[in-house]
Amino acid sequence: MLRAAASRCARGAIRRLSSAASPAAAAAGTRRQPPLDEGDWSYYREWWGEDEGPGEGAHTVFRRHSEHGNGVVSVSAYPASHPTSDQWTVTERWLQERNAKIYPSSTSDDQFKILGYQWRVMRFNDDTRQSIAKVMACYRPSGDTVIYLMQQPHCLAVPYVKSMVSAGLTALPSCSYDLHQAVSGQNNMKILCIGHGGGSLPLFVASKFRGAVVDIVEIDPVVASASIDSMGFPSLPAKGLPAQSMQPADGNELLWGGIHDRLFLHIADAEDFVANYGSVYDIVFIDAYDGDDIFPRKLWDADGTFLKNLEKKVHPIHGTVVVNLHSDSELRFAGVENSSHGESILPLGKHVSQVCRAYKQHFGLAFTAAVPWLCNITLVACRDKTITSGAKLGLSRRDFVLGKLLSKSNMVEHALDLPFPCLQYMKNGFTLVE
């Protein structure tokens, strides 16, 4: 989650970015040439909107009141400039191949056509931007016009999600996990996502890792419905959701080709789920804020049942936990560290150090990385035996751990064919939690 308030402390960086090369382009000269990053932050003008609401050019496609502390959950749509219409034919051909495989007797009249691409932005109470996803809309010209929505799993629009992916997936192989075998599907990879939003993070990891099995825990059925009906997330059955989705019945099979079979959506409280569900996870992603922008204390209380149970449900050798946190660090740089305004717009800021120490206490090692352009930080907690082993050669503990992480970042980029550089997100404000 990112607050509209976060944009205020990032505006200076946004303005500077508009006249500079994108971070992906800047890294391309010395590294592999990555694929085009359709979610590069330089596109933020297309989907950011106004601080107090969607802004000019948007239209609302979903709006419903939540009974779980999120207020009014809404989804707004904005036009996306990429990919351009001359690039649509490749995807239309892929859709037709999928259609012919599912329906061998289909004719040329059933040819799929792309209507276009949009940014879909989920908000709580018309203010807090909960998540952003790029969505493709397509249809068959013949017969009744049925619109299919498909979220683009390769496109991560928000820097904090890229930071979570970069830091978490770099920590895993640093703790001796074989990432290549999970990518190829030779090994199963158990992933838990606490907090669903639009579903971009679980879709991303499920599409990149053939061996991934992803459990998603979301307490609010309205949020889950919004992601399925309006943000192109697969129509997954879950207790507490309507039996029928607004999406076409064959959408999952046509668009997702089995990826949806490895995604499991649970409408549940995270504390209860972790206490009662039996899996042991390789990596856990946590991004769980409510409509008041609060990260529940029970999810970071060092003496609470959630962390005690989570410790048991994370792999004892390479288990890694990644948490999105709001931070007041950029406000301190702006000279408003002690202002009441800072306290009001970033309610978690003063608790960040406590959260970090709580996760370190339960998992052994913890570090943070600052998210570029936003008032967020990524916290990673993992088992420390492998990542801290070896000769330090005069390096401080911080530099030794950072060196191990950075040595894996290029491998992660290549293995997953990432359109953004892990290195940038790993190094930015790297701090070892002591």
TrEMBL record:
Source organism superkingdom: Eukaryota
Sample GO molecular function, one term: methyltransferase activity
BP GO annotations: methylation
Record InterPro entries: Lys/N-term_MeTrsfase_sf, SAM-dependent_MTases_sf
Record key words, sorted: Methyltransferase, Transferase
PANTHER family on file: OS04G0510700 PROTEIN, SAM-DEPENDENT METHYLTRANSFERASE SUPERFAMILY PROTEIN
Family statement: Belongs to the methyltransferase superfamily.
This protein's name: Uncharacterized protein
Species: Oryza meyeriana var. granulata
